[in-house]
Amino acid sequence: MNELIHRITAPVVSVAIVSNAIGTLVIFLLVGIMNVDIIARGVFHAPLRGVVEIVIFSLVLIVFLQLPDVVRSNRLTRSDGFLVFAETRFPNFAHYASRTIDLVAGIFMGLIAWTVYPEFVESIETCHFITPPEFGAPPTGEFFTDLAAAFARCEYFGTPGIFTAPWWPAKLAIFFSVTLCCIIFVLKALTGKRKPVLVDESESPV
After folding, report:
1. Fewer beta carbons below 10 Å: N end or C end of the chain?
2. Residue of 83, 80, 101 whose CA lies nearest to 92
3. Read out DSSP for 47-113?
4. Domain spans of the chain?
5. Taking the CA of residue 184 as centre, how many other CA atoms within 13 Å lie in the half-sphere pointing to its CB?
6. What is the per-residue DSSP string for 132-192?
7. How far is Cα 96 from Cα 128, in angstroms, rounded to an integer?
8. Tens of pLDDT, residues 37-77
9. SS3 of 18, please?
């Protein structure tokens, strides 16, 4: 059982770290776009169009791409006052109470994933990447032309004529994030470790 948990934990931890890194890259890109907008406004009196929409869309990606690693590293905001108090006098109770909280959190994350998945599927189906569209021009047979037309059909976020982006990548990020968080919380509940990092077995649980 422990070996099975270890095999599951190692790739989950790696994916969470990579997801966090991608979220950090999105932050750098967002900072760059905002700086360009500031210079364009102040120097050329020509602000970039759609910056507000880009910021809103990027924040969704940033929050949910970095959330699994936040959960993994035990930096998710929660009130531990009672557990800290109980740990000094009733360590066994505090230990199992913490595992119970992680299990409940995992269940809630699973419910969120179960709720978001149909919305993601419905959103990506509006693009008709594979199935022929019920409206508009039929496929031309040219890959990039048909792909651009499919993206244009997608359910979108933003303001037409200023900035629009398909909604399905954001919904995919949400589904991916809460699913990974569900797995991490369940691993915490099973192992009793606050940080399920099994790369270095000599590291004592925190």
Report:
1. N
2. 83
3. PPTTHHHHHHHHHHHHHHHHHHHHHHTT-S----HHHHHHHHH-HHHHHHHHHHHHHHHHHHHHHHH
4. 2-191
5. 27
6. PPSSSSPP-S-HHHHHHHHHHHS-EEEETTTEEEESHHHHHHHHHHHHHHHHHHHHHHHH-
7. 48
8. 999 988 888 888 888 888 888 999 999 999 999 998 888 77
9. helix
Lookup result for tokens 């959190």 = 105
Question: How distant, in Å, are the alpha carbons of 14, 167, 193, 198 from that of 72?
Answer: 10, 27, 10, 12
Record the pTM.
Answer: 0.82
Token digits for 145?
A: 């032309």
DSSP state of 204: P
Asked if 156 contacts 147 with a C-beta cutoff of 8 angstroms, the reply is: no
